[in-house]
Specification:
260 residues, single chain, 17 helices
Length: 260
């Protein structure tokens, strides 16, 4: 199953009333575009050792790697950075990116997560330096297992106010079916929506802080966070994922979500 494509469709078509606005905010000057070039600049090791397993950390470098630039699938020049991602998920995209909805969605979520964590790392060091993004981190934020966790996170967040109602299930499935979804994918989404909320068990599936930040970002794009139940859910999610307040606050700012 192509979990990343399902995540992309839900973001593109709006899982909640806030999803489209959040996505636009995340891609704009107050989100990733405003952070481009400010977080995780190339290290001296990168300059002197081009074969290093460490990536230059400007966001366009991260985005190029996340979209497969390292393997020659989509070069950074071809994808056009953040603007191309905006076109792909908000309409009007063309070429390679438009044909890779899941890749675009996971690149956005991965960039949000890695950027927020790098910002926190920089604040903890005397010289304002942050660890560069490694190939292992690039691989894990685009892995099929991570796509599945982000999808589960979005559907879990939708249960923050209680079980997902039948009419809401039909609305979500309808959006997915408009974009094309297999019988197996439909059954998976329906099964996840029907499960009772079990945040502790879900958190136990998440392997590390990087993926945790990515799942948190996906959850923010899935719900409005305008009720006490939703705010409590996000607080519990952040605590369970060991995300510090600074990282959480930056993720909220980058997607334009209210503070919790």
């Amino acid at each position: 199953m192509k979990f990343g494509d399902i995540v992309g469709r839900l973001l593109q078509q709006g899982m909640s009333g806030a999803s489209q606005g959040r996505l636009q905010h995340a891609l704009g000057k107050d989100g990733l575009d405003g952070l481009d070039g400010l977080i995780g600049r190339a290290s001296s090791e990168r300059s002197t050792n081009p074969q290093s397993n460490t990536k230059a950390g400007g966001l366009n470098d991260i985005l190029g790697s996340l979209l497969g630039g390292n393997q020659g699938v989509v070069s950074n020049a071809q994808v056009g950075g953040i603007g191309a991602l905006a076109g792909s998920l908000l309409g009007g995209g063309s070429g390679a990116v438009k044909g890779a909805l899941g890749g675009s969605a996971m690149a956005i979520l991965g960039s949000l997560a890695l950027s927020a964590l790098q910002d926190w790392q920089q604040s903890q060091t005397a010289d304002g330096a942050a660890n560069q993004v490694s190939q292992a981190e690039i691989d894990q934020v685009t892995a099929p297992q991570t796509e599945e966790l982000c999808l589960k996170g979005m559907l879990s967040a939708a249960k923050a106010d209680g079980q997902i109602q039948e009419d809401e299930m039909k609305r979500i499935l309808g959006k997915l079916e408009e974009g094309g979804i297999t019988t197996e994918e439909r059954q998976f989404v329906l099964s996840e929506m029907n499960k009772p909320l079990d945040l502790e068990s879900f958190i136990n599936e998440i392997p590390n802080q990087q993926i945790g930040a990515q799942v948190y970002a996906a959850s923010l794009l899935a719900i409005t966070v305008d009720t006490e139940s939703e705010r409590n859910y996000m607080r519990q999610l952040a605590a369970g994922l060991n995300l510090n307040q600074q990282t959480v606050a930056l993720l909220h700012r980058m997607v334009g979500a209210p503070a919790i």
